[in-house]
Structures are given as C-alpha cells and as structure tokens.
Amino acid sequence: GCGEGGCGACTVLISRCIDRNSGEIEHRTINACLAPVCSVDGCDVVTVEGLGSTNKSNLHPTQIRLAQLFASQCGFCTPGMVMSLYGTVTSKDNSLPTMKDIEEAFDGNLCRCTGYRPILDAAKTFACDINKLDYQKSSSPRVSTTFDKCFSYAHQTTSPINRVPFPDKLRDYIPQSIHIKGTSFEWYRPISLNELIQLRHSYPGNQSKLIFGNTRAEFERKYNQMNCSHLISITHIRELQELKRTDDSLYIGAGVTFARLKSKLIQWKNEDKFCRALLDQMKHFASTQIRNVASIGGNIVSASPISDINPVLEAAGAILELHCADNEKVRQIQLYDFFLGNRHVSMADNEILIAIHIPLEKSSNKYFLRSYKQARRRDDSKGIVSAAFKVELEKLNLADNQWKIVSVCFSFGGMASKTISAKNTQQQLIGLSWTKQTINQAYELLIKEISLDELSPGGQYQYRRTLMQSFLFKFYSYVCNELRESVIDSVDFSYHRGISHGQQTIPERPQTQKYVGSSLSHQSAYLHTTGEAIYVDDMPSHINTLYSALVLSTKANARIKQIDIDDASKVAGFVSFVNYTDVPGSNKLDNILPDEEVFVSSIALCVGAIIGLVVCESEHAAKLAANLIKIDYELLSPRILSIEDAIDHQSYFGNEICLQRGDVEKVFLDAEHVLEDILFIGGQEHFYMETQSCMVIPSNDDQEIKLYVGTQNPTDAQELIAFALGRNINRITCHVKRIGGAFGGKETRSLPLCGAVAVAAVKLGRPV
C-alpha cells in the first residue's frame, strides 16, 4: 500500500508479555511497513494468514463475517481491516467491544471501494451493544438486505472471540541488550539509561539515531533518503517508561506511547483540565496503529510545526528533562523555549529527552484549559490549525460575577514554522476583565502578532487566521458557560458524534411488486479476508527474475544533458540501466499516448517523466541504485508551469470544449447579483491502494511476451508493448487477474510502466 503507515493495509497484531509475574499480555495492532524486524524481538506476530486459511478450512470468525457480509470489493485493504477488527474483538479477555470501540479501531484503515458502510455493519456484529441501534424489522418502506443479514448475525455472538494462542516460551522471555549488524545499518537495543548514554557517547551526533515507534524515521529514510548507520532502539529503557502523578505535577516518560498515555489520561481526566484537553486532541491524533507504537517524546523532538499535541503541552507549561550523554548532567527547559523553528530544537546532539513534567494548578483562582483542531478530515489527518488556550481568572466582585485575567496562554500549531505562543497578546490581556470586549481586542492583537499573507507556507492564510479567531471565540464561550454566564443562549460548542449506521429507504410500492435479486458475497471474498488473494506484487518470482526501479525526471521542460550511472553501478546486484537507446521498436507512443515516449529521449516535458530504468538482482538494490543516478539538466524557456505563465506567453489550447444551455450572457446581464472570484485547483495525486506494478516474462519461443499487470486497459497495454518492441500484437499476452483499486488511475497511467519494463525484459532476456 502506501508504505508510510497511512492506509493500514499491512496491519498485523503484535503481542508480548509485559509482566512475567502476572502473565499479563499486551496486544497491539501496528503497521508492518513501519516496523523493523529487529523491533519485534520477544514478540508474537500474528498476520492475516496466521488467523486462518481457505486451504486449511480454519477461518477465524472475523474473516468469515467480513467475507459473508459483503465487506470487500477490490480486497486490497481487507487483510488490514481483518487484523484491526481481530485486534479489537480480542482486546478484552472476558468481554466483547462496544460499537464505538469498533468504529475507533478502523481510524487507521483506508478503503477506496466500499464507502465503509458494509465494513462497519459487518464488524459491529461483534459488538456487545449492537441492540442499541435503532433497527426494527417492520413493513415500513425500507430495504436493507445487507444490514438485515448483519443484524441477524449479531445475535450469534454472545461470548468472547477466540484468540490465536500466545506461545508459552515467550511468557518467560527476558529482554536483553541487542546488537545486530546488517549490510547498511547496525541495530542496538539498550535496556538501561546508562547503556543508552554510553551508546550516544560512542556514536555522537548524526552517527546514530534514536528509534522508538520508527513512524517518522522510516518516512525520512524511505522518501528523503535520510539514512543513519547506527540505529538505537529505546523501547526497553525503564526510565523512559515512567508515567505517574505527584502532588504538584504529572511525570510522563519520553518513551510512553500515546496509546498507554491515553488510557492513563482517561483515569485522570476528572482530576485535571490538562488531561481533558490532551484527550480531546488525542481522539483524532494519528491512528490506532500509530498511537500503539509512537511515543510522546518522539513527537516532541520531531518538532512538527503543525503538531496537535505540542500546543496543549505548551499551554500547560510543560517542562522537558534532558540528560547529556557526555557528562550525564540533567537540564530542564520550558517547551516554548525548546522549539527553534523549521523542525530545529534547542537540544544538543549528545542530549537525550527523558521526561516531560506538567505542572498541576494549585491556585484558588479559576483555571481553564481547552484544545481545538481543524483538519481536512476528522480522523488520522494533519491539522490545518490546532490550538490550546489556558486562562486563570480571579473574581473581582462577588455580586457582579466579574472576573479578571491573572494569566493566559494562547498556543498554536500550523500558524508558523514551529508551535508558537502569542506572547505579546498574552501580556496585554493580563489584568483585563474577562468580557466580550476583551476578546474582541484579543482578536486584533492575534492578527497583528501572528501575521500570515499569501506567501506564507501552507497557503489558505485567510482561512487559517479565521480559524485562529474562531477557536478563541469557542474557548471564550466555553469559559463563560462554565462561569454560568449567558453567551448566545449558552450554546454547547463541543461536538459529540454518534455511532454511524445506515439503512436504505425506498418509496412505497404495491404489495404485489417484488424485488429482483439478492445480495451475494464477492467471489474472492474469502481470499480477500485471508490475505490469499494474489495481486501482481504477490506473484512468486520466476527463476532469474530481476527487479527494476524507475528513474524519473525532477525537472519540467528540461533537456537532459548527461546521465551519470557510476555510483548506481557500484551497488551490489546492479545489472543494467535501460533508457531510450534500448527500445527495439518505437520510443514514441503517439498512437496510444499522445506526446509521450517510453523513455525521455531528449526533453522531459514534466516532472515524473520516465528517463530510465535501473535493473538489479533485488528490489532493495534497484531502489537504492535508482536514487544514485545523477542527471544534468538544461532548463528551457519559456518556463510555462502555471496558468498565469500560459496567459503571459499566449500559450493556449485549440478550440475549447464548452457546454452551455440557453443564453448564458443574457442571464448574467439580467442577474441582480453576480459573485466573481478566482478558484485555484492544484494537481491531484492518485491513491489507489495497490501501487502501479507489472511483471514481464520474455520468451525465445516465437518472440512471445507474457505481461502480468493491474490495469483497467489490457488492450492498450498489449498494443503499447507490441509497438515499443516492434512485434506483432498477437505475440503479447496480457494477464489481469485482479486490481487492488484503480479509480481511473490504472486506465492509461499504468501503460508507460508496462512499456519500460518490457523493454528491460527483452534487453536482458530475463523476467523483470
């Protein structure tokens, strides 16, 4: 799938014994794409194949239920759905989850086909409270055969679901220090703070990187080529795992996961307003799979400017505890002094974040803390703007119920290159009365202090400024309601989302009229839910199979002057670099894809054009070598890269296609009001779960070629390869078994890939 922990298709269950005396087992769903094999030492790993198999006829109830109740279409996301559901229904030893538990368990699983309704309906049949749904079988004009069947299944589940047995030998597992030396990296897992300090002393600065959940480090390694030779896993250091409440503060170890922190905050939420504010953000922070492995310390040190968590910590006056690896000195620093901007922090290379201290309010004054976030979707989405507001109020007059601001903090994410506090605004509000007039003044002060314009990174500057002000108004209204003041009729601004459910309704029909057809399960449903459905990337490799990776243009409208493959050719397993000179037939694809070539021969018209293909003995080597190809470009004029550029250069298409009905110009002239503005729409990145992939097998038998590909357009794929190879079309056989999501993205954009790989396979005479 996505390879970055975003889609959940690779979800697996990790179990480990966390208390040898009590035998307590911790079960967590995680994203396999982010979990190094080294990180699961001492753990039991359950994959979708481990739950049950169609060959062994030992299917797990979660697999059966999702298969029979129509919860898959393309099936690519289904193994992840099964594992998230399995992790939820088996999470409690003696009881079943609620419908709310089940809905929240899917916050890290994306599906592009079903619209989620059949998945949720099928999953909720395991819920202990499904009878609370407003569902009645009656003669009303409603048809929902899917939900009818789901509801009937629900009454078959009354006892906890069986869990795959935990291996006895892992119950006695004692964590030990680990050092694993690989070809590119060395992996260390210390089990004490002293051992960690020694490792950081031995490998200071950029020589080593601390790893916890690996959620950001893996992303940087994969997409930004930020590699480090020594990786130090800090998951087993006891000093980083402490989580306690004292008389004057909360002590949160830097290695506490968000999942563990969330469960503890729920216990403490009625004792301190900080717990409630942080819980409000954590409801929609990341996903279940990410929260199960990511630590609060890692989130702080990554210093994201759009962090949801850091504004709450900053508003609460969080203090960080740092240890120096060289002299073991302990340093404390306020969180608002820790962030320097652009992901830089006030932390030396030899320092280690140990804990976060949250001071508890002991004043007799009224104290309020609240957090807010606006994102493009509710769950598992980066915030556009997040905010946390804290105010301490002192009562001025008992009779008039007037309050004075003693202290205040307004902290924001998404408004600058770091988490930022409006210090000037805060200072000017101290001593003022808590009134609407004061808040109106605060609006103006905020806009002046935190200024955004059309050149600000992230765009949407007017919207973000409005969000900042609207969050403050929500906070003001909340505080006034708490103080029992009447503000716009005491509106409750908190959002409470109910359990989702759907039923299809139809118009009233005569009794004699019947419905044709019935709901049938997908033919491959059981293969989907067991992970046994074969997509292109799952196909077993043939003998002598090679692996390729694309070399894409990073410039638009640029002439390629030189391609340097020296560094790439030194990668172990490198076989060949393939480009336009290797095309035996036609490199131009005008008859199928106008203005495109199999490989760029001279001028790259756009970013992402295929310049060449690196072919190696392994997939890892191919990707590594492709990143080492160096290309020298000559940028050409005119640089028409936007609509504005095109207008300036009078660069237009021919006759435009126009759809109109009636006299459009007259209607506009006669209109009482005309609203006019400019709408900018950027490019779209296709996201169809299964990435573009194909396998080409050449043969000396009558120049035949076998192509295995996930495409919506096998005919054009066949024709394109024949054209590029200069062979008759009847020599090309195109196999399409199934596609893991497409949505138009595999109609034509799968074709250039097929052509490039076919050229490489014919050149080398081996499957690629």
What does this protein structure show overall?
The protein has 4 domains: 146 residues, Orthogonal Bundle (DNA polymerase, domain 1), CATH 1.10.150; 182 residues, Uridine Diphospho-n-acetylenolpyruvylglucosamine Reductase, domain 3 (2-Layer Sandwich), CATH 3.30.465; 101 residues, Enolase-like, domain 1, CATH 3.30.390.50; 181 residues, Aldehyde oxidase/xanthine dehydrogenase, a/b hammerhead (Aldehyde Oxidoreductase, domain 3, Alpha-Beta Complex). Helices cover 28% and strands 20% of the residues. The protein has 25 helices and 27 strands. It holds the Pfam family Ald_Xan_dh_C. One of its GO terms (molecular function) is oxidoreductase activity. Belongs to the xanthine dehydrogenase family.
Shape: globular
How large is the radius of gyration?
30 Å
Number of helices: 25
Hey, roughly how much beta strand do the residues contain? 15-25%
- Oligomeric form: single chain
GO molecular function: 2 iron, 2 sulfur cluster binding; FAD binding; iron ion binding; oxidoreductase activity
Organism: Rotaria sordida
Domain 2Fe-2S ferredoxin-type: 1-51
Cofactor: [2Fe-2S] cluster; FAD; Mo-molybdopterin
